[in-house]
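Help: why these numbers?

___
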Amino acid sequence: MENSRIWFDGAITGYIEVKVPLLTHSLQYGTGIFEGIRAYDAGGKPAIFRLDEHVERFMRSAGIYRMHLRFSREEIRQGIIDVVRENGYGACYIRPFAFFNDDSISLQTKGKKVSVAVVAVPYDNYFGEKFSKGVSCKVSGWRRINSDILPIQAKASGNYLNSVAAIGEADASGFDEAILLSKNGYIAEGPGENIFLVKNGKLLTPGLESDILFGITRFSLIEMARKMGIEVIERQIHRDELYTCDEAFFCGTAAEVTPIVNVDGIAVGNGKPGQLTEKIGKAFMDIVAGKSKEYAHWLTFVG
């Protein structure tokens, strides 16, 4: 990272050149907002997946927390493109981040300066080699936060303490990842991923009533699957359906499409990645690699 270039408050600069105080408000209180975006090598050129949708969600998150970004949607969008270009990356993970750049102790955010940064790092897959083999999961004892507590449709830093607790619990128990339940006991999502189940050739996925973040990869897979003739049902899903489904998988910017092969020590299906999961995963990877004309509009190429 030392030699990488970032976009900070409207200008390209060096990663190590940017310094913020230890008492920065967003470091103390988790008041940052962010996005996770991927660029892929698509025929020798970097292609950013669903850039406009990610920038739009970033702006919505800022609005929910009354953050005045000082930069327009287009300026931030261009900043993301510039960072990918400046670093010469093919495949990378991109993190736009906005925070209250103020080191006062007060919880009050009114009038505080907001800084915006865009950082990119070379990236493969969140789960490494288990991306294709499948992951084991533990249903967490921690419930997914809900809109009675915090705005769950804001992709805010503080929300992810919920995820950190769940991941720590799963790891300590020997599992790869956690699955969180909603306050009503229905399946919600993973710590940083949405979840799908496969039953009798149909895709099941939790809806908004289960306190999920509406993931951009999730929306994309739903649209893809329906065009492939696969029925997709959004509904509340009981915990025990994890143990009786035919297949299951996570999806997200970092996770892409990752099979779930075991939950709480119980094999999902035959304990291996399922055929429908693999079919959807392949179709998704073809799209991000620029191999699909139908979904070419989902990619923003960086020249």
Observations:
- The mean pLDDT is 95.
- The domain at 5-122 is CATH 3.30.470.10 (D-amino Acid Aminotransferase; Chain A, domain 1).
